[in-house]
Each structure stands twice: as structure tokens, then as C-alpha cells.
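During the reporting period the student researcher (J.K.) took over the structure-prediction task from the postdoctoral fellow and processed the backlog of single-chain submissions. One of the processed entries is reproduced below for the supervisory committee.
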Amino acid sequence: MALLLVGGAMAFTLLTTPAGSTGEPGSGDSVQVAPVAAVVESGAVPAAVARAGDAYLRGAHWFGDGWAVNFWNTDLLAVAREDFTALKADGFNAVVLVIPWPGFAADRTDGRLVPERTRRLGELIDLAAAFDLDVVVRIGYAWDSAVEAPEGWLLDMWHDPRVYQGWLDYIQSLWDAVGERDNVKFGFICWEDLWAVTWMNGFEEPARREMAQAIGYRDWLSERVTLEQASDRYGVSFTGWSDVPLPRKDEPAYGWFLEFLDYAWIERFFKPAQARFPSLSMEIRIDSDPVLDANGEFDYWHSHEAAWDLPGAPWTTIYWSPAMGGLNQGEQLAPETAVERLQYMLERVRAVTGTRPIFIDQYLVEDFTPGFENNGRIATSAVPDFLEQAAPVMAAYAQGYALWTWKDYRHDAIPSPDFSIDAAPWTFSAGVDDTPAPGLALDAGQGLARSFGIGEFHAPGGPEAADLCVVARAGDGTTGLTVVAPTDPDSPMRLPATGERECVAVDVADVTRIELQAEDAMIIDSLVFSGFTQPSGIREVGGQRKPVATDWVRFNQALEQRAPAPFQLYPDGWMGKALDVDLDLATGADLDVVIETTLPTGWPFQPVLAVQVDGQPVGEAICGTDEPARFLLPDDVRNGRARLTLTVDRLHQPEGDERYLGCQVLRVQTAPSGAQ
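J.K. obtained the following C-alpha cells:
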């Protein structure tokens, strides 16, 4: 059959081969297809036409002089003005602020915000506005080093109604505090902060049985399968639903648990949170997870596409790195390979999420996070080539991105390195004024001590050694700090108080105790204890530009003008979430747009097609009806050219097909109004 997508005098024709007698996808002969935006007449609409709308979001996560885990415990306003000036110079127009739930809420069951933090957040947003910077807020971030064991909050919210309500109340409080400010673009929660529940799959069986009921998995499962089917999948003869536990990750039933997560992320977390923070998105999980068979062998990959299409969200938020889709055996990637992977992922996401703009909140072109050393990477010297090739792809398929690392940062185990916040269990000598304020004043003989758990360094297994670094000022610059550390407790080390950064290496154990004593009166401006520096920023820790920063400036300039790619049909005539058709309106007469669709026998529902012309709604159609749908084109688009956009309300993944499909389109054309 010939699939016609035409406007006026037939702007273009898309030819397909019949896909079997039932019209179902995935069967039949191979198909040769012209792109939906391809044209056969001169003067037709180009494939990519910039649409009206907001400027491309070019953002960066901002952590001041700290890092994601401790930056709210530092004097942020002291460095924000200088950093925001530098961000603008680098071509950015937005900052991303992570707002931890532990730390902003004083208690896991009480959603009221800590006033001091709320005040500083508001001041930062206002300062960003003064620099013409939009703000995107990540809501519910899991970590804040001022809070002991924040991971417990993440587990409890799944099974304790009081904690769950506290999380929702925190989101409501955040909206009330800053959500309606003009430069707050949107907020997003993140699948990462809802992933801790998978720790429960490693519990002992009695606890897994208890949690299966407590988190709602058992009720969800019992509505979808029989007890006999559950017994078969688990390999256990259950006598009642109360016997069914959470599956282990090495069991076939883990695939069901992953399906439950997709459901819960949307129904239990995103929708209720969005009711409290209306401009809410969610970073969706675009990685797939392996499911094993009964023999412990790989069976299939579970994709989380069922949780990608966020109802009512203003943005689709994702993350990306060149390693995605690779072997990840330490290989070095050519820029061309990384760009192909980027385009593939963006096309795949758009097929499910449709016209909703995509924001890559963690655009990890380079990433050296401990524990991921085997990830495939682009050579640092090849990053400029990658950015040049990636710019048109990003302009066509996304509408925003943010660097996770703008400035390099240290994985600092000290909660408040400048002592501006009462955020650490230091033990001070008698007479020390430990009132929270930037800089700690010590007299001769005074000191401080603290024990550090290895987990506070936030590196898998912990570092073997860490640098203890101080910036301290004393009268003549000849004095310093005596350091007693496990490296050699009987031979104390020394950190000079020169006003510059001075460091000593310290061996790290499961618990590492550090004691410091001032030789003379001094002020400690900064104290950092770090076993790793993330080097993937475009500026050094101190803010100096790296050579690659110039390439990022050019990249940002290239994104100032979007050229969105049209949504296309699959070769067998199916659309995903959306379809674009460029219409050539050669006559000034009243015109209808005619849309003919079909669905295979047995399709579980008839999707509703929302029809827009140049962004104006013109009506709705039911996919798969016998008669073509007709809509009168608006007056202001009856001459010249226009873009028709179809969007379905629901997608379905047929068995044996990797795609999520919307509607099979047979014909789109314009015709004189009222003509058959």
C-alpha cells in the first residue's frame, strides 16, 4: 500500500511495504522509507523548522566551593556572584540546584522547611534572576552530609505512611517557598532517589515477605497474576498471597518487581508530588536492568519505558553518558560513536514521550566517578570534536541540558568545610567559639577532633588514603596546625598556616580519627578531607578555565537557535507518541486536513489523537475508526505552509515488539473543505 502524507499538491509520499495480512508491525518484507520530512517538490518545508518557544536551556549544576553532598553547609552567597558571572561568560543561561530532602526538612515525618536554608535558597534564586539565569531545582535529593544516615529516609518513605506524607509535605513546602518565582523554570524528582527500595531485594526472606506487603508490591502483583502463576515464576508452591516475598535480584520474578517500580514511580510518587509542585518533571531511568532465568542465566533486559511518559509534566528529564549502550570494558570511544549513541537515545525517548521537551540534567560527556572506571569514554583530547558533532543532534532532539560538573570538585568528607554551618560532630577544645560562622578562630593550644566513617568519602570501598587540606591564616605565617592521624600517630604531621592551601596525606581506615591543634592564634578558613577529585568540569576547582571551556562556549552558542527534528513514522506506518507532517498549502481556499488511521485486530484500546496545526489545537480523532477524520484548518494557516502534529494519549507495546506504538497512519492530506 502507499502511505500518503500530503499537503495541497502532494508535498511528499511515503511508500511502505504491507506488513502482513493483519497489518501488525514486525512482520512482512523489509521496507525502504523516505523520511517523513523528505520532499519531492521544490519550495517545500525544510526538515527542521525552529518552533516558537523558550530559549534552549544551557545549564550547569552549581555547588559553590563544595560538592553535591555538602554545598548547602557552606557560605554559598559569598561565591555565587563571581560564579554566576563566570557561568554567563561560559554561555550558560540556567543553574540547577539540588535541594536535599534530608537537610531542608528537619525531620523525615515533618515537611516544614528549615527557615535558614529556605532563606538562602530564595536569595540564590533572586541572585540568579539578577544575572538573567533560570533555575531548575532537583527535588528530594538524597544526600546531605549534615544529616546522619539519610539513606534511611529513602527506605522508610516506601513503607512508612508518616515518612511518605512527610516527603509530600516537603514538596508542597518547597512549592510554597519558591515554586512560583519567575525564573524557576521547573523542578524534578529523580528515579535515583527512589531506587533505594531495591536494597530490600537483598534482605532475608522473612523481611522480604514483610516488605512485600508494606510497600504495596504484593497487592499490585495479586491484581495482575494468579497465585499459581506466582508460584511458577518464583519456583515455590505458595499456599496464600501472604507467602509471597519480594524477589531477589537473581530470581526470574525480579522482572515483576521492576514492573512494579515503573508503576510506583508514576502512581505513588510522581503524580502525588506533581499535585503539590505543578511544574514538576522526573528524571526517568533510561538504563535497562537485567533479569535472570531460573538457572541464574541472563534472560532479558527490562526497559523502564512504561514510566517515561510523565502525565502532565512540562519536561522529560533524562541523563546521558557516552558509555550508555556500550560494552564498558574500558574502551575508548570515537566521537562519532558517542554522537550516534546520543541520537539513538534521544530518538528512543522522543518516540515514547512525544512533543514534551527533553532536558538532559546530567550531560556526562566526561565522567570519572569512582566505581565506574570501566565505562567507555571519549578521550579528553576528542571532546572538542564530539561537541561539534553533537550540537546539531542536541538542537534537533532536546531543548536543554545541564552539566553535572561545571567546576571540578573534591569528594569532601567534612560536612561544613568553612565552619559556616553547625553541621559536623567536631569536638572542640575548651574556650573555642564554635558558633557557626565562616572561618574558625583558634588560640594557641586550642584544637578540634573528629572521627570519619569510610562511607563519608562517598567512594565504593572508600579511598586508601585521603588528603587533609587546610587554608589557615596566622600573624606572621610561620605557625601551623599539628595533625595527629592514623598514618603515624606517634609522629604528628604539620599543616602550615600560610593563607594558601596546604595538604598532608592520611591513611584511611573504616574509622579514621583526626586531631588538630593550633601552634599559635589563627583562623581556619577551610578544612577539606578528600580522597578523590572529580576532574570532569570545564573549570578547575578554583574556577580557572580549562582549555576545553572554549569548546563548550561554542557548543552553547550553537544551541541558541533550535532546529527541532520532526517526529517521523516507523517504516511500517506506525507512529510513536507523536507525528509531524509538513503541509504545503498551495491554495487560499478553505481546506480540511484528512487523517486516515487503522489498528490491528485485537489492539487493546483505541488511542485518542490530539491534532494541532502550528501549535493550535484543531480537534481530536479516534485512531482506527472506519471513516477518516476531517478538520478545518485555521484561517491563519490556509496560505503557505504549516506543520501538523498528531499526539496519541496512550501507547501500547505489542508482544514481541520492542517499540511502544501509538497509531498506524494510512493517510494525511489536505482537501477542499467539505470534499470527500
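The committee noted the following: Confidence is low (pLDDT under 50) at residues 1-52.
J.K. will present the remaining backlog at the next meeting.
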